[in-house]
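Comment thread on ticket #2218

A.B. wrote:
> Attaching the input chain for the structure job we discussed in standup.
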Amino acid sequence: MSTKVEVIYAPDSSTTVERPVFLSRVPGGFPSPADDYLEGKLDLNQYLVKHPAATFFVRVTGDSMTGAGIHSGDLLIVDRSLEPKDGNVVIASVDGELTVKRLFLRHGKLVLLPDNDQYQPIEVSGETAFEVWGVVTHVIHEL
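C.D. wrote:
> Ran it. Output below, let me know if you need it in another format.
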């Protein structure tokens, strides 16, 4: 199934949840007790949402973007204030249907590319009702 937007959420910046950030980098385990000093606190809203008024979250369904690390059920952070550029992963409306694809401009043609070889690119022609809703900046998924 092509990757599509399942649900759209607005960010709630009225709350903060700060978590500790350790100075040491962790190769695969928990920080050493010798490194038990903190760099500070991290609020994920501040770290992940650069333009709160222009940011929204979407939950996606489908597997056409697995090569970009986007899987069915993932939550995407989307920024409407960013200018879409060649190669960006975007949320786009194509003939009234929201989809998640990589934006490419090739030989004067606008193309939406899946990141899964089992799916075909979508060429955006003059007859296509098309609009970029925003640029995907982060993906959140469970391991």
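A.B. wrote:
> Thanks. Noting for the ticket: The radius of gyration is 18 Å.
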